[in-house]
Amino acid sequence: MYQDIQTIVDHRHRSAHGGARIYQSDAFPGDQQGRLFMANIHEHAVLSDVLQPKGSGFVASHGEDFMLANNAQWIGFSMEVGPEGGLYVLDWHDADICGKEVLHKETGRVFRIMPVQSAASDWPGRYKDLNLLGDESLVALQLSKSDWHARRARTILQYRASKNGISTDSKKRLLDILDKNPDFKLRAMWTLYITNSLTENQLEKLLSHKDPYIRSWAIQFLCEDGTPSKEAVERFIKMSKTDKSPVTRRYLAAALQRIESENRWALADGLVQFEEDKNDPNIPFMLWFGIENLVPSDPGRAISLAQKSKIPIITNHIARRLVDADQLEILINSLVKKSDNQIHLLEGILAGIEGRTDIKAPQNWASVFEKLKSVGSLSSTATLINQHFGSSDAANEMLVLIRNKDADLAQQKNAIFTLATQQREELITELPELLDNKKLRIEAIRALAGFENEAIGISILENYKKYDSLEKQAVIQTLSSRPIYGRLLASAIRDNKIPRRDIPAYIALQLRRVVGNGFVEIWGPIDQMSSNYKTQYAKYQRLLSESAIDAADPSAGRHVFTRVCGVCHKMYDQGGILGPDLTGSNRGNTAYLLNNIIEPSGELQDDYKMVVITTQDGRTYSGNIVSQNERQTTMRIVGQDNLVLNNSDIQSKDITDKSMMPEGILNTLTDQEVLNLVAYMKTLEQVAYSKAL
């Protein structure tokens, strides 16, 4: 057994947070049966979640901390139930929690967890080799309280069926359990299917079963090995209009991708009309996955489905997909017809044209817009679409909006963003006054990055000391976006007009790209800010003694975190989203913190690799890729909403093997700031900011 487990240790991917399974064990008290148990590698523990039905699935809430290890190298991973009802846990037993390599291949162990007093009852043959039992005895184990025996018996029956079949009496017994035993009918159904003992006709009859899970599994089995029969699909379509169970409707939505296009439309037509499914955690997405590739090929039918849908996300996604498929004109025509879904169609259009500088207003838009803007519930979204189309009239309306001191602030901010994205020269004359408006200053600073205006760049540098921390961050990001501004910022850093400590490491990397290698002469080495790892580890291991950390000020450390880490990382639901959320990480371990800070690129997932994009108009962005398709790339940028770029506008894109948090970040801090930062990061709950700072 040890060699088998060792093979798992050697080859299993290391980045997961632990193994989990829903288990039924007659050895444990009833209140612990059926919970979701997981081995959490950071907490060195086995935790539990309590499952509650919600819509078509379940939601989990945190249960008791089932088992806490007293060894920091205990790394629970895979979990299984054994024949006696015990819970078996694979312990990786390694100090390196998230590493890609197995450092200690001979230290893995297997633990068995059992209650002090087992609730499991013994029976003759409980520990017997099940391969020695006859078919009828294996079928009888489907009624066992031991989940392990039921699953193992099914595996053996499946193997026998693949070789010589199973006995007629065992099939009859399984059908009898399916028909008469409410507690174990699913086990019987599963066993009948994997032993090739259920005909298609029998499965079709089960589509009328009173239990939604039986109906659902009948749908799955009818689709399992390819396209279901014509008769089965006809039943699916009828069920899509009448079935009362969200569970069954989820399985019908899953069947969409297994049936031909014509029937897929009909099946979706029924499923989209259940309004109670609009907030279901599964059904709307599964519906969309099933019809997405049909939408461009039949825009008329797609719009018809969108208009009758009572699930807003479906209507929204259809509109967005039709924009991508260059079917904007037919989509605009559909807005003439009044319906409850007009707003969702408009929102989908708006999402589809976001970042699309190549889209022009269709000929039919002007007349449709005149009607839409007079409808209160549609006016604001229709106006935003009109602004994105970039007509001179729309630009003038936005300029009037910006100048209106009584206008809605959110609308003013959006107008500034839209004009900057379209690079409307009219906005430049408005920027000096907007920079004096505290409420709109950050938007004005960011808007400057859309243009090349040295005079305004000099102005925001001269006023830098007057700005608050968020405004300073916006200034630095804007001035690192173009060569004309980058040279101004580099000179300010050289002349100590901008403190080096205000420049995040990722901005330093970006400035080298924008300004050129001459920036290295001002800043110093960038790629290897802290190449001597041993020296760094030794220095901070001496500094970060437990007594020194205990004496530090975590409240002051929160200030350091906000300035240095918070632009990218979130902790206690506050901060940026470029890097991982640190709240649930192994923050209590000083060595773990040091390893990730000193060598941030050591174990770097692709999602967090720094990407530097330069556009055709000379602007440079640094961030992470959120998503990309054949037309657009979406980036996550520090301190801003996601940025959508047309691929045709991208001049160059470099994906580095470096994290956006390069090495040497501790070198920018004093020893006391490092102590305060680590003290804050090791807190168990949020602390107030230090009033002294």
What this model shows, in words?
By secondary structure, this protein is α+β, with helices and mostly antiparallel strands. Among the domains are: 112 residues, no CATH class; 149 residues, SH3 type barrels (Roll). The protein has 31 helices and 15 strands. The strands form four sheets. Strands 1, 2, 3, 4 and 5 form a five-stranded antiparallel beta sheet that branches. Helix 8 runs parallel beside helix 10 and helix 13 crosses helix 15. The chain is flat, with a radius of gyration of 31 Å. The protein starts with a helix and ends in a 12-residue tail after the last helix. The N terminus is likely disordered.
Summarize the structure.
Helices cover 46% and strands 12% of the residues.
**CATH top level of the domain at 533-681?**
Mainly Beta
Cα separation of the termini? 59 Å
Estimate the global geometry from the Cα principal axes: flat
Major sheet characteristics: 5 strands, antiparallel
Which fold name is given in CATH as the topology of the domain at 533-681? Answer: SH3 type barrels
Taking all Cα atoms into account, the compactness measure Rg is: 31 Å
What CATH architecture of the domain at 533-681 do you see? Roll
| Counted beta strands | 15
* Number of H- or I-type helical stretches: 31
Helix content: 40-55%
Mean pLDDT comes to 86
Question: Which percent band covers the strand fraction?
Answer: 5-15%
Structural class: alpha+beta
Low-confidence segments, given as residue ranges, are 1-17
